[in-house]
Design brief:
Strand content: 25-35%
Radius of gyration: 17 Å
Helix content: under 10%
Structural class: mainly beta
Strand order of the largest sheet: 4-1-5
Shape: elongated
Number of strands: 5
Largest sheet: 3 strands, antiparallel
Amino acid sequence: MSFERARHEERRTARSTLLADGTLACPACDAPVAPLQRAMSPAEPLGCGYCLHAGMVRDFLSLAAPTRATHVVVRVR
């Protein structure tokens, strides 16, 4: 018996590179973490200046609302 998978293609007329708004905060102590003055990859290393917790940018990024003091914009390139 063979099954065929249904395919769905979505095309949007408006294009945007904005994915989400978020906050950079330490996952260990919840202190705000200042982003670098350039674009950062989710896999780049980042550290907390307060408790010295180290991880990757994606570990420090929260997309939950409301955003807080260290507001960041997540874009797809």
